[in-house]
Design brief:
This protein is of the alpha+beta class. The protein has one domain: Cytochrome p450 (Orthogonal Bundle). The chain is built from 17 helices and 12 strands. The strands form 4 sheets. Strands 1-2-8-5-3 form a 5-stranded mixed β-sheet. The chain has a 3-stranded antiparallel β-sheet with strand order 4-12-9. Helix 6 packs across helix 7, helix 6 packs parallel to helix 16 and helix 11 packs across helix 13. The longest helix has 32 residues. The C terminus is likely disordered.
Length: 458
């Protein structure tokens, strides 16, 4: 009987240091090339970190679902605890399960309708500042809009005056947690390096805002029924409540994850629509038939199927969470290979979503693919923009609702076109941001909103 191979195939290891694809100029291209060359499982070592990269839906399902008890969050998430703390994203075990139960009611359907009204109103506020033929960095516009929304609907706080400062702090934080920096141990943040000093200053600014939110609620004592109220009312078995630090960790986690995912997704959607004007034409036809110029609401979404396909296809080509990873906590075997305790297992929506075995013409932006029989027969984890299993993103339905509503509200009022010559490249940090932003020119559509139509009559 042949012996089990100790390791999967993979790129040649450099002496001592192994391989560092995250430090390359284009990590996504490196991972894609390795996946095509080495198949469903490949191995490489980044310094002291052993990595098993999985490229098949059945293997991904094993890690995220059927054998999830054998895995914990990976080194990148562990290394982010120094600024994210112990919130839902980073916590493990019974602590995570308790927090998940406490947070889940904030995402029940009865609350989603009120969230939809806020999303629509804030989008109208933003659009009121846009002018025909002007140029804006649409990525920053989406970042500020979605942050205002998540702060309001999850924490009942209006932070409009803080958006620019917070957006700048988040930009610093995300820019310096990209590439190879994601696997560096957090102890290195104590080095007196200018970049790291900027990161620590950005974290202090975010802490200042979050702590202000907590203190305002402590003083008012108001129970608004939002996530923060639920967390502040929560009690342990001994009757104690959450400390300010525990509240801070949850709020910062939701501020980051709750706005970043949608903002990044929409930024790439506007780019794809700019490159494929025929898709924008189909969208406007749907808006004309269903909305007739009025602001979309949650109850409109079932009648906007093409809008949903555009969002879904955009998240296929540019998944906001471009990779997921886990660390083995128990020695086990996967695909015939033994995985030692402490190994990193990586799964990439970016790779899977562009795999020609599962998607015909995978590089093509084609929202209509989601109506085909082939799409209906996709293996479960051929498409997984929000992860899966017990740690499926708690805000997945929130993010999809928000992306659809904002896309419909904006795209029926404006066409967005990429400024000629503007460089477009993906920056694989914790999320998949556009490296150079997304500078686009605004062109007002003929269809007017009800408010504008009334003003015209007056």
């Amino acid at each position: 009987m042949p012996a089990v191979a100790r390791r999967p195939p993979g790129p040649p290891l450099r002496f001592l240091i192994g391989n560092f694809p995250l430090f390359s100029p284009d990590p996504l291209a490196v991972f894609t090339r390795w996946a095509r060359e080495f198949g469903d499982v490949f191995y490489y070592r980044a310094g002291w970190i052993e990595v098993y990269f999985l490229n098949h839906p059945s293997l991904i399902e094993s890690v995220l679902v059927s054998q999830s008890q054998n895995f914990a969050k990976d080194k990148v998430i562990q290394n982010s605890r120094w600024f994210l703390g112990e919130g839902l994203l980073t916590s493990e075990g019974s602590g995570w399960l308790r927090e998940r139960r406490l947070c889940q009611p904030a995402f029940h359907r009865e609350r989603m309708a009120s969230y939809g009204h806020t999303m629509a109103a804030y989008t109208e506020d933003m659009l009121a500042t846009w002018q025909d033929a002007e140029v804006r960095d649409i990525h920053q516009e989406m970042m500020q809009l979605t942050m205002r929304i998540v702060a309001k609907v999850l924490f009942g706080v209006e932070v409009k005056e803080d958006t620019e400062r917070v957006a700048a702090a988040l930009n610093v934080l995300m820019r310096h947690t990209s590439g190879g920096r994601m696997i560096l141990p957090p102890i290195l943040r104590h080095l007196p390096v200018p970049a790291l000093m900027r990161v620590k200053r950005a974290v202090r600014e975010l802490d200042e805002m979050v702590n202000r939110i907590i203190q305002q609620r402590r003083v008012s004592g108001e129970d608004t029924g939002d996530l923060l109220s639920m967390l502040m009312a929560a009690r342990d078995e001994d009757g104690s409540g959450m400390t300010d630090r525990q509240l801070r960790d949850e709020i910062l986690t939701f501020l980051l994850a709750g706005h970043e995912t949608t903002a990044v997704s929409l930024s790439w959607t506007w780019y794809l629509l700019s490159e494929h004007p025929e898709v924008g034409g189909k969208l406007r036809e749907e808006f004309s038939q269903v909305l007739g110029g009025r602001t979309p609401q949650l109850e409109d979404l079932p009648r906007l199927p093409y809008t949903d396909k555009v969002v879904k296809e955009s998240m296929r080509l540019y998944p906001p969470a471009w990779s997921l990873a886990r660390t083995t906590v128990k020695e086990m075997e996967l695909a015939g290979y033994p995985l030692p305790v402490g190994s990193n297992v990586v799964m990439s929506p970016w790779i899977m979503h562009r795999d020609p075995r599962f998607f015909e013409q995978p590089e093509r932006f084609n929202p209509d693919r989601w109506t085909t029989d082939a799409a209906q027969r996709l293996p479960k984890f051929a498409y997984f923009p929000f992860g899966g299993g017990p740690r499926l993103c708690i805000g997945a339905s929130f993010a999809m609702m928000e992306a659809n509503l904002l896309l419909a509200a904006i795209a029926q009022r404006f066409q967005l076109r990429l400024v000629p010559g503007h460089p477009v490249a993906a920056l694989p940090s914790i999320t998949l941001r556009p490296r150079h932003g997304m500078r686009m020119s605004l062109s007002r559509n003929i269809t007017k909103s009800p408010i504008e139509s009334n003003q015209r009559k007056d």
